[in-house]
Design a protein that fits this description.
Layout: H1 7-50, E1 66-71, E2 77-80, E3 87-99, H2 103-129, H3 137-151, E4 154-158, E5 161-172, H4 175-221, H5 228-262, H6 277-287, H7 294-309
Antiparallel strand pairs: 1-3, 2-3, 3-5, 4-5
Region (Disordered): 52-74, 273-310
Biased composition (Pro residues): 54-64
């Protein structure tokens, strides 16, 4: 016969009762929660059925059109000139453009591809500068710009993104070459100004001589000329004016001949001796020439003769 007051059986029964009560409580709470969620769901569905339908979402913004951005290298590009003693300095600018990229994205790609563009332009300029004299920066600039125009815009790609680049280049002299050329160009500018001034004076003298010749011819052909003495004076004046006119023409030709001979001074030189001694002497001799022909003075003297005769 088992003892009813066994402590082990009493403990098991107590835990069984506690478990049963916990399950009943959890089931009751679950049923209540489910009923509450069902009521809430039915109210939400009824509320949404009474509301107007939601408007359609806004369409995505259209992609931007063609954008451009200009970037300059941080420093000029240096390439060696002929002889590899002096250099040319190339000032470059790169204009980047794209279709459908945002401005910040285009700016990032321009900065990303800038080293490649600088390297390509450096290689292109170096190939053409090795045959150009150090002081002929203009020739290199023209040649380089023609090459860039023939090749067209450059295209750079990274993945599915492509951008185009239009480079521009301007060539500057080496500071040492510029310093050596300054005396030469000062003398050349002075000679050019003197030549233009003398040529203009010669043209004015020639026009004046032609005008006086026309006036003398009118006097000779006039029927009111009074005597052989006056006619002889007009004839002498006319001959004198013709000789002065021929002298003026000869003077202009001498100026042109001197100009052609002095052009040898301005031929491109590869050494630092820009003006040799002989050429400098010719330039100084040309600068000491008379600044006006004798026709200008002779024309005034000739104009007095017909007035004395008449």
């Amino acid at each position: 016969m088992t003892d009813a007051s066994d402590p082990e059986s009493t403990s098991v029964g107590r835990w069984r009762q506690r478990g049963t009560r916990s399950l009943v409580t959890l089931w009751t709470a679950s049923v209540g929660t489910g009923r509450w969620l069902a009521r809430r769901w039915r109210r939400l569905v009824a509320y949404l059925q009474d509301q107007e339908p939601y408007p359609a979402p806004y369409p995505p913004p259209a992609p931007p059109g063609r954008l451009t951005e200009q970037r300059d290298p941080p420093a000029p590009i240096t390439v060696p000139a002929r002889g590899y003693v002096f250099n040319f300095h190339v000032r470059a600018t790169f204009t980047w453009s794209s279709e459908g990229l945002r401005p910040e994205v285009l700016s990032w790609y321009a900065q990303y591809f800038l080293p490649q563009a600088i390297e390509r332009l450096t290689r292109l300029a170096a190939e053409r500068a090795r045959d150009v004299a150090p002081h002929q920066a203009g020739d290199l600039e023209v040649t380089l710009q023609q090459a860039l125009a023939e090749r067209g815009p450059w295209r750079f790609e990274r993945g599915d993104v492509a951008v185009t680049c239009e480079p521009g280049a301007w060539v500057r002299l080496d500071p040492r070459v510029r310093q050596a050329l300054q005396p030469h160009w000062k003398r050349r500018i002075a000679l050019e100004c003197q030549y233009d001034e003398q040529l203009r004076r010669a043209q004015y003298a020639e026009r004046l001589s032609r005008r006086w010749v026309a006036i003398l011819n009118e006097h000779l052909d006039s029927p009111v000329t009074g005597g052989a003495t006056e006619d002889q004076d007009l004839t002498d004046a006319l001959r004198h004016m013709m000789s002065l006119q021929q002298a003026a023409v000869q003077w202009v030709e001498d100026l042109l001949r001197d100009r052609l001979s002095n052009d040898s001074i301005f031929e491109p030189l590869t050494s630092l001796d820009i003006l040799p001694g002989g050429s400098q002497g010719q330039a100084e001799e040309a600068s000491k020439r008379p600044t006006a022909p004798t026709a200008a003075h002779g024309s005034t003297g000739a104009s007095d003769r017909p007035r004395q005769g008449g």
